[in-house]
């Protein structure tokens, strides 16, 4: 474990050096993601300029859900963004073969190969949105509440990672599963809003099949009194662990099935 921590530090250090060589690209990437997130928040604000509540949820409660979604997603965006590239950048051109002959875990090497600066913009927006919403919620914030919020956000991030890893692994059979990964990832946009506004079939899908509900809605519902989902929200870290185990198991199945493209 210590060896991998040292290795990851070296990978990150190298990636940061590359980012600093192109500082304007770094800043433009961060700002573009921030603007993209602001556009989504602006849309919600326009809606609430015409209504007071959305199926019983206030503007600041939805803003809180949105903030948790953005912050959790930023963990995936910054540290695990390379999952998007498995098929078209590694397997198809034959670059994945080099990871298999090195004396470290190929999944670790694959993930550590890239640090995505754009995710910092998403992280900043998530923190700003959560900080904006918190004073308007009827919650007494103490050390325990903040600790639980941090755990929920980290768990949210790893659920994003697990789902992307699971579907990216299909590239071992399909060469490039990016269209499927992208389609599944777009479902996470539903979790930025209260799941109670959707049909029960969609709620079931986003809770127990592809658990994006645990990336934002359920963690936020834990803190909102009267939401009715406090007990279910406590499953968030457990869902994160189960999802990661399932995704890693599927990854190993994919590795055994992998055949080099020979490019």
Automatic annotation (TrEMBL):
Swiss-Prot/TrEMBL keywords: Membrane, Transmembrane, Transmembrane helix
Name of the protein this chain belongs to: ABC-2 family transporter protein
Origin superkingdom: Bacteria
UniProt KW RNA-binding keyword: no
The UniProt record lists the keyword Transmembrane helix: yes
Transmembrane segments: 26-48, 54-72, 119-137, 143-167, 202-220, 232-251
InterPro entries in the cross-refs: ABC-2_transporter-like
Organism: Fictibacillus barbaricus
């Amino acid at each position: 474990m210590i060896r991998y921590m040292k290795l990851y530090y070296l990978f990150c250090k190298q990636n940061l050096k590359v980012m600093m060589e192109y500082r304007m690209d770094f800043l433009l990437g961060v700002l573009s993601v921030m603007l993209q997130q602001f556009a989504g928040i602006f849309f919600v604000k326009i809606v609430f300029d015409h209504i007071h509540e959305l199926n019983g949820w206030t503007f600041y409660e939805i803003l809180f859900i949105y903030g948790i979604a953005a912050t959790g997603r930023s963990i995936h965006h910054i540290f695990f963004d390379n999952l998007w590239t498995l098929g078209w950048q590694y397997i198809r051109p034959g670059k994945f073969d080099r990871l298999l002959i090195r004396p470290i875990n190929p999944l670790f090497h694959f993930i550590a190969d890239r640090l995505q600066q754009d995710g910092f913009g998403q992280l900043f927006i998530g923190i700003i949105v959560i900080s904006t919403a918190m004073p308007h919620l009827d919650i007494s914030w103490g050390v325990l509440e903040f600790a639980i919020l941090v755990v929920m956000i980290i768990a949210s991030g790893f659920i994003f990672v697990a789902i992307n890893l699971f579907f990216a692994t299909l590239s071992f059979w399909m060469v490039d599963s990016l269209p499927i990964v992208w389609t599944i990832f777009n479902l996470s946009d539903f979790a930025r809003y209260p799941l109670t506004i959707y049909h029960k079939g969609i709620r079931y899908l986003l809770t127990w099949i592809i658990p994006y509900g645990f990336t934002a809605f359920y963690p936020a519902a834990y803190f909102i009194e009267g939401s009715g989902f406090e007990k279910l929200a406590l499953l968030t870290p457990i869902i994160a662990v189960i999802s990661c185990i399932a995704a890693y198991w599927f990854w190993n199945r994919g590795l055994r099935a992998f055949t080099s493209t020979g490019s």
